[in-house]
Amino acid sequence: MSSSPSLQPLYSFDGWVIKNIKLSSDVAVIKIRHDKRHFSHCPFCGQKMGENRRLWQVAKNLPLGTAHLVEIIYEAIQGYCINCKHYSTLIPPGIDHHSRATTRLMHYVCRLCRFMPADKVPEFLPLF
Questions:
Q1: Rounded to two decimals, what is the model's pTM?
Q2: What is the span of the domain harbouring residue 54?
Q3: Domain contains 3
Q4: In this predicted model, what pLDDT tens digit does every residue of 60-105 receive, in sequence order?
Q5: Measured between alpha carbons, how far is 41 from 72 in angstroms, rounded to an integer?
Q6: Which of 30, 46, 74, 98 has the fewest CB atoms within 10 Å distance of its CB?
């Protein structure tokens, strides 16, 4: 058993595995990929989907130590269900489809906005 701490528990997305992590004093980049042991299923009918294409995308996450900018780079997988004729995009759970941010970050920003003016939030989170 290794005595060095791991970032795996912080960035565990069901069905996704960490490919690599790059840390510097002010930036952290976590690259994850879809676990090949998990198949893509159609959200409409539940059948296995065929894969159309893959596209690398970026989502912002909560700061980590001195790294104020934390980016999660992931592969968005577009699939097509031949059973119900729907296209669907598979992304890691916990990342919002439209905002390119994790739900953890969005909830943290909402909590900060309860106690301070919204124009002061970027002083605490230099992501905007």
A1: 0.82
A2: 16-124
A3: no
A4: 999 888 888 899 999 899 999 999 988 999 899 889 888 889 999 9
A5: 23
A6: 98
